[in-house]
Model the fold of this input.
Amino acid sequence: MLDQATIHKLTRRGVAEIVSEEEFVRLLQAGAPLRLKMGFDPSRPDLHLGHVVGLRKLRQLQDIGHQVVLVVGDWTAQIGDPSGRSATRTMLTAEEVRSNALTYMEQFFRIVDKQKTEVRWQTEWFGKFTLKDVVRLTAKFTVAQFLQREDFRKRFDAGHPIAITELLYPLMQAYDSVVIRSDVEFGGTDQKFNLLVGRELQQMQGMRPQQCFMVPILVGIDGVQKMSKSLSNYIAVDEPGADQYGKVMSLPDAEIVPYFELLTDTPDAELAEMRAHIAGGAVNPMTLKKRLAHEIVRMLHGPEDAQAAQEHFERVHQQGDIPADIPTYAFNGAPLVDVLVSAGLAASKSEARRLVAQKAVEVNGAAVSPETPPTLKAGDVIRVGKRRFVKLG
Done:
């Protein structure tokens, strides 16, 4: 039997909703190993801290004896799924999917115990599907049911197209749960509809329905929108520790405690003290951010990288030093905007101009303005934001 403190940690900390929580707790207390399903579509190979919230929950359950089953959506990734987007994802080739999946799993196993994880590829079962199998599967649900999914409903009401292939996606995800005999499926709150379809399909097949375990959506480093690569407000799992550390230090103060709560094991009582101290001005938020940044880098890269990242931050950002290992860009006389794009400091000329307009670009320590573009020369050091440098060679 698990004690109440453990149950509280598993069902309250870093949890948005469990369907059904009562049944989930009963299954935990029964003691039999549960099959914990986490599926992913390797349409992109990279993970960020928003994904880590759910991965940490998987690891907690692994550590008390439960089995993680990682379902690689190598079949559904070739179909496309909006997943809350206003447009469909691009279909990928099998080769692109496999390459992305291998990169994903390297990052996944930084948090989840590889030795306690069963990896399954959808092609094991969907590769054998016939048209008859597809028709039988689609016959179990109606279009009206699927239009209850929020992103489908919004697009339908707005007159935007919804491909038939997109309606197949929740069915295929649900069928995964049947095949692997999932006891609990994990996802973000935006995946609730798909998880519930899996629960319903299992019941139709005479199986015990899976529990749907949903984790919160982590706010990005802008403190406003959910963490997302497309919004450039993310901290990637595989980026260098120094960059991760610096991004954590840029967090708004209001996100310090939520990040501690969702991404660390800091006790609840200590979190309450942090909230009170921040609200009362009894602590410098930078002190807490440095601790948070150190813990996150240590989790993803190890203690040595965490210490090196902290020393780098203190040297470059608090003491104003320029890193000794900044990259060199072969300067050819191009104007600043072109250099920013070519050197990888901006994604496009429009972004480069925006950075300059925001006074986010320095040359040799002096901020650049649109009205007075600098005349660049070899040896100049360009700095964008707080963390990105390049030296003109």
Summary: The longest strand covers residues 35-40.
